[in-house]
Specification:
The protein is α+β, with helices and mostly antiparallel strands. The chain is built from five helices and 15 strands. The protein has a six-stranded antiparallel β-barrel. Strands 8-9-12-15-14-13 form a six-stranded antiparallel β-barrel.
Length: 362
């Protein structure tokens, strides 16, 4: 009978050319079945000592779990590191991050608050300021958006046009004096700079070409001097041709910088649309631009403030609103928002920023 009776799991080795469990003794001569009883062989020539009981298998089995554990530990380390990196990227972390929301190159909304009005307000409000512009005609109030930590602020030209003194109030209540860096009346944009400012919270400029009708938006500004007022709505339309006054010269310009407390004013934020004038006479010197339309509530004082997407990026600079009672009555009384507001697309601002910084449009 030639059947191998090796137990399951037994292995042969180079030192053991015969099966471990042979039923025959081997002394170098032929035998006819002397049983092996587990004792040492008698040393007959050619005999082999009995092999150790499965020692090679034991050594191999001891090594494999150790190697497996090491591999698992390494994989866990790699996965753990990758997860930490991913979380850091999602939260805007890294050496360039500033503030609790992980803002990089301007404030953005934290992952836990993304898509909420409260999250946008918390992230962006510190970068929105109130602007008080004093001139011989009186004083107007508007808003602005901080774009650099040392105090560059974007606003509407009509907010600061003709101003002899500009005072800016941060969301913290701290006030600064500001100087005009550059203006572009044709686009109703202006850049001012705070004196001796540093470490300010800044806003991130988005991409208005990606805006779609129906997108949710948030507006932040200082309507009627109420600093940091937050409203929300949607983008109602794109590419509206809105016409506003270029400057405040003459009676037609009185009050176009929101008209709050202006002497002889009372006209509120005049603009033209579709060949008709609203909120007062825009005068002879006007400019027309393509605007984003929104139903987020805008009121006198919001001009120059921010229209923001739900990621916390600025997509427009609020610039005009429709107030029916003032245009209908001609009395100049302020009317509340009826959901017809307009903003200059942020891509228009980004294309004009170098010109404003150079003062070429002034």
């Amino acid at each position: 009978m030639t059947e191998n009776l090796r137990p399951s799991g037994a292995h042969s080795t180079d030192q053991d050319p015969t099966p471990y469990a042979s039923p025959y003794a081997y002394d170098g001569t032929a035998h006819t079945g002397t049983a092996y009883d587990g004792t040492a062989y008698a040393g007959t020539a050619g005999g082999y000592p009995p092999p150790p009981p499965y020692a090679p298998t034991s050594r191999r089995r001891a090594k494999r779990p150790v190697a497996l554990l090491a591999a698992v530990a390494l994989a866990a380390g790699v996965i753990g590191g990758g997860t930490a990196t991913l979380v850091g990227q999602l939260n805007g972390g890294g050496s360039g991050a500033t503030g609790s929301g992980g803002a990089v190159n301007g404030t953005t909304v934290s992952q836990s608050s993304k898509g909420t009005v409260s999250g946008v307000a918390e992230a962006v409000s510190p970068a929105i300021v109130e602007i008080g512009a004093a001139s011989s005609a009186g004083r107007s109030t508007g808003s602005g958006v901080v774009i650099t930590g040392d105090g560059e602020i974007v606003t509407n030209n009509h907010v600061i046009s003709g101003a002899q003194q500009i005072q800016v109030t941060l969301s913290t209540g701290k006030t600064y004096t500001a100087d005009v860096v550059g203006t572009d009346p044709d686009k109703d944009l202006a850049l001012i700079k705070l004196r001796n400012a540093s470490g300010l919270k800044t806003a991130a400029l988005g991409d208005s070409s990606q805006v779609k009708v129906g997108d949710q938006v948030v507006a932040i500004g200082s309507p009627e001097g109420l600093t940091g007022t937050v409203t929300s709505g949607i983008v109602s339309a794109l590419d509206r041709d809105v016409t506003v006054a270029k400057d405040d010269s003459g009676s037609s310009g009185q009050g176009q910088g929101q008209g709050q407390d202006r002497q002889g004013g009372g006209q509120q934020w005049p603009f033209e649309f579709g060949g008709q004038q609203f909120n007062g006479d825009t005068g002879e010197e006007t400019t027309t631009y393509k605007a984003l339309q929104t139903d987020a509530s805008l009121n006198p004082g919001n001009s120059g403030g921010a229209l923001i997407n739900m990621d916390g990026e600025i997509i427009g600079i609020n610039s005009a609103m429709y107030a029916p009672s003032s245009s209908a009555s001609g009395s100049g009384s302020a009317a509340g928002s009826v959901g017809l507001g307009f903003a200059i697309p942020v891509n228009t601002l980004k294309a004009d920023l170098d010109t404003l910084r150079a003062g070429d449009g002034s």
